[in-house]
Design goal:
Order of helices and strands: HHHHHEEHHHHHHHHH
Number of domains: 2
Largest sheet: 2 strands, antiparallel
Number of strands: 2
Oligomer: single chain
Structural class: mainly alpha
Distance between the termini: 74 Å
Helix content: 55-70%
């Protein structure tokens, strides 16, 4: 009997662990899914007319914060007669679908509204930027795939050059940067990756190889604060960033005497009083 118990107990423990991980995964997926798993009831909207009916449908598909999108959201969106609101409704479903399923085909389905959309009917206002580009931008970063950036237009809401930013930020290594078609964007991408390598290896010599002053100086700050080496701060050619470097080390070492090396009066005072260095 005792021999059987020796085999049964470990088997039970393994079974419990398997069940624990299975249920944990189910709970995790349920929490992070943007969809509720239930259909919205459209009966409350059917007696309404015109904009009130469209507004009702829209609210069903995009409930208040912390509520999830119903499973039949796209079907409900299709019932909206106002074409602008109809397209916006669908875009607001496709965007979380693309993120949740890591599938850019949902971004492809989004509308090509390339400017701010304003609907102002009965005090209901929507400001919608180019969500299709935002979808591609987010996907490129999540998947570390700069080729997705090519699907974007040159600019997105407010004239910000998101396509350029997409190319610079999305690659995770120098090989990814090499795929960028624009020389300037490729160079900035390479500098970003090299800065990351320098800080990861706490190597100030690698920081020195960075050609952009801001990249180089922030690299020195990161390495100096990690190594608690104030001599590295002396390599910084921007006085405010040099002061920040000294202050970070002083706070990390809890050495207020180092604060006296800071030239900026306010930053020096914050350092001596153990306050955030850049607070006003």
């Amino acid at each position: 009997m005792s021999k059987n118990i020796k085999f049964i107990v470990p088997a039970i423990i393994v079974l419990i662990l398997i069940l624990f991980f299975v249920f944990s995964w189910i709970i995790f997926v349920g929490i992070y899914s943007p969809f509720s798993g239930h259909d919205a009831d459209i009966s409350s909207c059917e007696s309404l007319r015109g904009w009130d009916k469209d507004y009702c449908y829209f609210n069903l598909t995009h409930p208040p914060t912390f509520h999830k999108i119903p499973s039949n959201a796209l079907e409900v969106c299709s019932l909206i007669s106002n074409q602008t609101l109809n397209r916006l409704c669908q875009d607001l479903v496709y965007a979380p679908l693309a993120k949740y399923k890591n599938d850019i085909s949902y971004c492809d389905k989004m509308s090509d509204i390339n400017k701010v959309v304003v609907l102002n009917i009965r005090n209901f206002t929507i400001f919608g930027e180019n969500m299709k580009d935002a979808c591609y931008y987010s996907a490129a970063q999540r998947l570390s795939d700069p080729s997705i950036c090519a699907k974007m237009i040159d600019h997105m809401g407010g004239g910000m050059d998101y396509k350029r930013g997409c190319y610079i930020i999305s690659p995770k290594d120098l090989e990814g940067c090499a795929e960028i078609p624009n020389d300037d964007w490729r160079e900035k991408c390479e500098q970003r990756i090299k800065r990351s390598i320098a800080t990861k290896n706490d190597d100030p010599e690698l920081c020195a190889e960075l050609i952009y002053p801001d990249y180089r100086n922030t690299c020195y700050i990161d390495v100096a604060s990690e190594k608690l080496d104030i001599k590295i701060c002396e390599k910084i050619d921007n006085q405010r960033q040099k002061d920040l470097c000294v202050g970070v080390i002083a706070l990390n070492k809890k050495d207020t005497e180092l604060c006296s090396r800071i030239t900026d009066e306010k930053m020096r005072d914050n350092c001596r009083n153990s306050r955030p260095l850049l607070s006003s």
